[in-house]
Amino acid sequence: MSSQPNQSLIDGIRCFQELASSDVPLGNAELAERLGINVVKANRLLMTLKSIGLAEQGSHKKYRPGPAIQLLAAQSFHGSHLYKQALSVLAQHQYPDRIVAMGVLWNDSVVYMYHASPGQAMHEALGGYRLYHATQSSIGQLFLADREDEALGALVEPLKPEEQERLLDNIRQIREQGISILFDTEKQSFNIAMKVTIDGSEAGLAFSDLMLNRAELDDAISQLHELARQIERNH
């Protein structure tokens, strides 16, 4: 029996992921281009997803997630101890001066499970934020630090030299300290992130848009540590 990964299954999952993360319906050609596959294969994958309710076609014959995505969403929430434990803690913490986020790395992008701006309602914070490239995210860089240097090479290649240097400096700092601390020069604010682990599953927990001086930043780091501990202890 072959132990090789099933490429057709992988392509089908990638196809569904692309549909689920797109803000607009996608046609065969658009999806094929995004996935780097031919149009015939893209059409076959979309028709298969449609046959099991994971995709549907709108008036312009383009595809969007189908009704079965609601079932998957409910099952995913039920099956994720990390998600349930984290949300019950995060629901009790509202911050007037920062964004609170929790996310995981998918390929080269951060998928936010929770992303709450000051004053934002809980239901708006759940899965309602776009994918974010890992190199531009404190959570993303936190997980990129786990990769080998060779694997980072292709990721940083499109960046400008000064951006490459800044990213690699951040990666070195994360490996040494176990926490991601980024300074946004445009907003003049800090973004900090650390890992939360529950039953072997990892996510990144972050505070962002912190308009603080260095002494105040140390307090925010302590608060993030405490929030992470509360989530991990919440059995």
- The total tally of domains equals 2
Globular, elongated, flat, extended or rod-shaped: what is the shape? globular
- Kindly name the structural category: alpha+beta
Work out the helix count.
Answer: 10
CATH class of the largest domain: Alpha Beta
* Low-confidence blocks of residues: none
pLDDT average, as an integer? 91
Protein name: HTH iclR-type domain-containing protein
GO molecular function: DNA binding; DNA-binding transcription factor activity
Keywords: Transcription, Transcription regulation
InterPro entries: GAF-like_dom_sf, HTH_MetabolicPath_Reg, Tscrpt_reg_IclR_N, WH-like_DNA-bd_sf, WH_DNA-bd_sf
What can you see in these coordinates?
The mean pLDDT is 91. The relative contact order is 0.10. It contains ten helices and eight strands. It starts with 6 loop residues before the first helix and ends with a helix. A hairpin with a 4-residue loop joins strand 6 and strand 7.
